[in-house]
Amino acid sequence: MNQSVGNFLLQLSLSYEITGEGHVASDNRTTSNYSTLKMSRLNGKFALVTGGSQGIGFACIKELLNNGIQGVTLVDVNVSKGNESTALLKEEFGTERVIFIEGDVSKEDQVEDAFEKSFNHWKHLDIVINNAGVIAEQHWQKALLTNCVS
């Protein structure tokens, strides 16, 4: 996963908005003010990212932090990888902008606990990225062909 995918996802979210009636409306902002726009739209916001210790989740967290989000909660079942990733993020972005919470999103009580701890720490949440997922390696190709190619 490279940074351009995270940037694409953020750009996509800035390019389209859901109107009050549930319709997708094009957002006609120019690329010249794109960087300022990204920073202003994330300023003061807080996010929770599941499966954030590596891959797409980690890239999403870095992209959010690079673009001005105030704080991110990294939720992951892998404690050692979660602590390692959180330490890297704190080193790069500051100790006050990232917290790690151990959580297995396949267990409802752990999901509720992660949200409660995150909410108690940041006092609110604005963005949730449900990234955690598992798949056996032998099923990866079939899932990719079914979900993305066909």
UniProtKB/TrEMBL annotation:
A GO cellular component annotation in the UniProt record: cytoplasm
InterPro entries membership: NAD(P)-bd_dom_sf, SDR_fam
Keyword hit for Oxidoreductase: yes
Gene3D superfamilies: NAD(P)-binding Rossmann-like Domain
Cross-referenced PANTHER family: 15-HYDROXYPROSTAGLANDIN DEHYDROGENASE [NAD(+)], ALCOHOL DEHYDROGENASE-RELATED
Family of the protein in this entry: Belongs to the short-chain dehydrogenases/reductases (SDR) family.
Protein name: Uncharacterized protein
